[in-house]
Specification:
- This protein has a five-stranded parallel sheet, with helices on both faces. A two-stranded antiparallel ribbon has the order 4-5.
- The radius of gyration is 15 Å and the shape is globular.
- Helices cover 40% and strands 17% of the residues.
- The protein is α/β, with parallel strands linked by helices.
- The model has no long low-confidence stretch (mean pLDDT 83).
């Protein structure tokens, strides 16, 4: 049974502590509501860029956990980022892939391969330290504390339904340049 993305995001928000989060596309609207004014920078407008943005933050701040809230369609746009992340081997990097089999933001067109695409196999093949799939919210809730402490890079394929809103249907949001400035200021504080 697939999980609701919003339920997964609530688990993350409740337990992540001081981790920096990089939500993208369909995770972004709910994240803005669930975790406003936190240590996040939303990656909307450059599909497939969340893992690269998260990698940069993880390398710049190795003492802080970085959680990328990626979409399966977004990741497919930049599959090479898996090898880049694995090659850099940031121990503080968690890559959560919300897998629903469609490009939800642009109209729910099926991604190539649909639900058959195996991101766990791709991450393992690229050299991530560990990768696995979770499709049950109770299991995710139970395993998330270890996800926050396990050595990265780590990829978790989360089997989810469609989000209630997408960046195209949700109001609001802060311009990307302002998010980067805000996050930089927050990270400079002791």
């Amino acid at each position: 049974m697939a999980m609701k993305p919003e339920d997964v995001l609530r688990v993350i928000a409740a337990a992540r502590g001081e981790a920096v989060c990089v939500p993208t596309m369909t995770t972004a609207p709910a994240w803005r509501t669930i975790a406003p004014n936190d240590l996040s920078v939303v990656c909307v407008g450059f599909m497939g860029g969340a893992s690269s943005l998260g990698l940069g933050i993880a390398l710049a701040r190795p003492e802080r956990r970085v959680i990328v809230l990626d979409g399966d369609g977004s990741l497919l746009m930049q599959l090479g980022s898996l090898a880049t992340v694995a090659g850099a081997a940031p121990r503080n990097f968690v890559h959560l892939v919300f897998k629903n089999g469609v490009y939800h933001t642009s109209g729910s067109q099926e991604v190539p391969g649909g639900m058959d695409v195996d991101y766990v196999m791709m991450a393992n093949g690229a050299g991530y330290r560990d990768a696995y799939a979770i499709g049950d919210l109770d299991e995710f809730r139970r395993r998330f504390p270890a996800i926050l402490t396990d050595e990265g890079p780590l990829l978790v394929e989360l089997h989810t339904t469609l989000a209630a809103e997408t960046p195209m249907t949700a109001p609001g949001g802060v311009p990307f340049h302002q998010q980067v400035e805000d996050l930089s200021e927050k990270l400079r504080r002791p």
